[in-house]
C-alpha cells in the first residue's frame, strides 16, 4: 500500500501496527469496524467524537494546548514536529514551516497533490445531471496500473477511492487516458452473449440496463466519451484527464522533508532531539486508514525514541 515508501515506513508501522491503533481508539471509548475496502472506520462514521475524547485524555495528562501559536524555529528543546503537509491550507495545514526548515539547511522537497480529484472537461449536460453520482464496482487502469473500486463524478472532474489510489500515477504520467471497465466481473464474451439478445423497441438505455445491468451514469458515460455500447466498449471506456484539481483541495500531499534528513526514528540529523513525523515527511499513501496509520506510527516511534533519549540525559 505504501509503494516505494514501504522500506522507509515499515519499521514504524510494525512498531505501532493497525491493531495498536484500533486498541488506542477503543481505549478512548471509540468502537471501530472494518469496511468492505479493508479500511478501519469509527462506528459513528465521524471523527469528532474521537477528537473530543483524545483532547480530554490529553487534558487529564496535564498537556498544555496553545492555540493560534506559530512555531518559529529550533531552540534546543526536545521537539516532535507534526505540522502536516500542504493540503487544505485554509484549515491550517499550510506548510508555513517550510521556509524555517530550509533556512536551517534541511532539504524539503516541493509539495504535490496526493489523493486528489482530477479535472475532466465534462459536457454541461453530463455534469449537471451526474455531479455527485458514484460509479460503483468498476475496474480502472492508468499507465498499466490497475485498481478496483468506486469513482465519483464531480462538477469539475472525477474523484473517489479508486481515483485516489491511482492519483500518483495520474499526476506523474500526464497525458494518458483513464481506462474504465464498467463490468469488471464479466468477460467480453459473456457481455457479447447478453448483448446479442434482440433489443426490440426498447431504448438503448433500457436495453443496457436490463441486459448487462448498467446504471444511468454508466450509460451516459459511454455517450459522453463517444464509446460504442458494445462488449468491448463497456470494458474499455477512455476518459481524458486534464490535471489534478490542485493541492488546496487534495486530501493529502506528497513531498516534504527529504528522507535522508532523518534517521530511522525520524530524528532530524541536523538537530538532536528534534523529530519530524506524519505528512511533514516525503511519502504518500492511499487515503483513509493507510495514510492515517503511517502518521500515527511515525509519531509513536519518534515519541518513544525521544523519551528514551530524555531518560538517558
Q: Could you tell me how far the N terminus lies from the C terminus, measured between alpha carbons in angstroms?
A: 38 Å
Largest sheet: 6 strands, antiparallel
**Count of DSSP strands:** 12
Count of alpha and pi helical runs: 11
Low-confidence stretches: none
Structural class of the helix and strand makeup? alpha+beta
Strand order of the largest sheet: 5-8-7-6-9-10
Question: Helix and strand succession?
Answer: HHEEHEHEEHEEEHEHHHHEEEH
Morphology:
elongated
What percentage of residues falls in helices of 4 or more residues? 25-40%
Tell me the Rg in angstroms. Answer: 23 Å
What is the residue-averaged pLDDT?
94
Tell me the β content. 15-25%
Explained architecture:
The structure is a single chain. With 313 residues, this protein is an alpha+beta fold. The chain has eleven helices and twelve strands. It has helices spanning 6-15, 18-27, 48-60, 98-103, 124-130, 161-172, 188-195, 204-212, 216-224, 231-234, 289-312, and strands at 32-34, 40-42, 79-81, 108-114, 118-119, 134-142, 145-153, 157-159, 177-181, 237-240, 252-257, 274-276. The longest helix has 24 residues, at 289-312. It starts with 5 loop residues before the first helix and ends with a helix. 31% of the residues are buried. The model has no long low-confidence stretch (mean pLDDT 94).
Amino acid at each position: 500500500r505504501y509503494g516505494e515508501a514501504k522500506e522507509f515506513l515499515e519499521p514504524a508501522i510494525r512498531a505501532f501496527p493497525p491493531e495498536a491503533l484500533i486498541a488506542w481508539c477503543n481505549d478512548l471509548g471509540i468502537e471501530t469496524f472494518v469496511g468492505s475496502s479493508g479500511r478501519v472506520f469509527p462506528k459513528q462514521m465521524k471523527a469528532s467524537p474521537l477528537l473530543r475524547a483524545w483532547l480530554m485524555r490529553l487534558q487529564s495528562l496535564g498537556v498544555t494546548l496553545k492555540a493560534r501559536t506559530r512555531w518559529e524555529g529550533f531552540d534546543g528543546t526536545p521537539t516532535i514536529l507534526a505540522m502536516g503537509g500542504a493540503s487544505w491550507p485554509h484549515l491550517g495545514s499550510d506548510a508555513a514551516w517550510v521556509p524555517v526548515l530550509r533556512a536551517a539547511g534541511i532539504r524539503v522537497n516541493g509539495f504535490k497533490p496526493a489523493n486528489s480529484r482530477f479535472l475532466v472537461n465534462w459536457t454541461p449536460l453530463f455534469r449537471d445531471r451526474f455531479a455527485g453520482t458514484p460509479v460503483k464496482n468498476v475496474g480502472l487502469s492508468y499507465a498499466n496500473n490497475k485498481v478496483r473500486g468506486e469513482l465519483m463524478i464531480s462538477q469539475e472532474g472525477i474523484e473517489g477511492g479508486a481515483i485516489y489510489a491511482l492519483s500518483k500515477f495520474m499526476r506523474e504520467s500526464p497525458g494518458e487516458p483513464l481506462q474504465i471497465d464498467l463490468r469488471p466481473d464479466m468477460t467480453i464474451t459473456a457481455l457479447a452473449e447478453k448483448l446479442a439478445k434482440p433489443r426490440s423497441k426498447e431504448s438503448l438505455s433500457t436495453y443496457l440496463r436490463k441486459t448487462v445491468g448498467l446504471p444511468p451514469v454508466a450509460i451516459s458515460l459511454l455517450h459522453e466519451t463517444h464509446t460504442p455500447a458494445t462488449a468491448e466498449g463497456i470494458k474499455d471506456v477512455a476518459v481524458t484527464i486534464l490535471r489534478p484539481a490542485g493541492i488546496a483541495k487534495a486530501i493529502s500531499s506528497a513531498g516534504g522533508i527529504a528522507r535522508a534528513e532523518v534517521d530511522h526514528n525520524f530524528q532530524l540529523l541536523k538537530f538532536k532531539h528534534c523529530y519530524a513525523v506524519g505528512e511533514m515527511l516525503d511519502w504518500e499513501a492511499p487515503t483513509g486508514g493507510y495514510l492515517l496509520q503511517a502518521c500515527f506510527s511515525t509519531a509513536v516511534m519518534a515519541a518513544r525514541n525521544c523519551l528514551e533519549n530524555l531518560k538517558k540525559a
